[in-house]
Amino acid sequence: MKKNWLLFKIFFKASAFTFSGGLAMLPIIQKEIVDKNNLLSEEELLQYASLANSIPGPIVLDLALFVGKSVSGYMGMLLCTLAVSLPAFIGMLVVAIIFKSIPQDNDQINGAFNAIQAASAALIFSVCISSYKKTVKNSFHILILAIMVIGIFIFKINSILLLAICGLLGVLDVYIKARRGGNDHDVV
Questions:
Q1: Sign of CA dihedral 141, 142, 146, 147
Q2: How many Cβ atoms sit within 10 Å of the Cβ of residue 16?
Q3: 20, 91 in Cβ contact below 8 A?
Q4: What is the CA radius of gyration of the chain?
Q5: Least confident piece of the model among 3-7, 25-29, 70-74
Q6: Cα 181 from Cα 18, distance rounded (Å)
Q7: What is the arithmetic mean of pLDDT over 24-35?
Q8: Euclidean distance between CA atoms 128 and 10, whole angstroms
Q9: Which of 20, 91, 132, 184 is the most exposed place for a label (fewest CB within 10 A)?
Q10: In the predicted model, is pLDDT for residue 182 greater than 70?
Q11: At what angle do helices 42-54 and 107-135 cross, to 10 degrees?
């Protein structure tokens, strides 16, 4: 029960004090789950984050499901999902009530939203750097990263199509390594 309450507090805090979704919450979740409480390894959390990012649905809800199930079974899944949803529900209710009474052209409100966007971008960038350091380990991984970045930002290719292509390249990489005798070194 103590672990369930801890999971609830971690995901509630992450959801209540970050903006712009799951990737912005990841540094807080990582600090609490991995560094402070040793509930999962950093590699496990990054695997769950990658998986949550690749399946349909809100990233943070998918991450809450995976982490909750891994740490504390089905009760953990339920509590993490509730914890991550509750602040957004309460926040949207309060904002809707307040926003209805504020004029739409209020410069202070627009300034606050712009500052929140900038802070959220910085948090997402932080996650990208952390993820890069932990997952890009050889030249094949750099190739996959380059394909994604160039495909999305230069050629404007659909990210789902690129994920499928990179997934197939990963399968091909494993096949080639197996044919060469299981060598886990650089392929490219």
A1: negative
A2: 16
A3: no
A4: 20
A5: 25-29
A6: 46
A7: 88
A8: 21
A9: 184
A10: no
A11: 120
Q: Tokens 């529900």 belong to which residue?
A: 89
Positive or negative, the Cα torsion across 131, 29, 152, 129? negative
Instruction: Read off φ and ψ for residue 73, nearest 5 degrees.
Output: 70, -155
Q: Residues 66-99: pLDDT tens digits? A: 999 999 999 999 999 999 999 889 988 998 888 7
Burial bucket for residue 103 (CB in 10 Å: 0-12, 13-18, 19+): exposed
Q: Does the pLDDT value for residue 21 go beyond 70?
A: no
Mapping DSSP to helix (H, G, I), strand (E, B) and coil, where does residue 176 land?
Answer: helix
Q: For 101-152, what is each residue's pLDDT tens digit?
A: 877 787 887 888 889 888 888 888 887 888 788 888 888 889 988 998 899 8
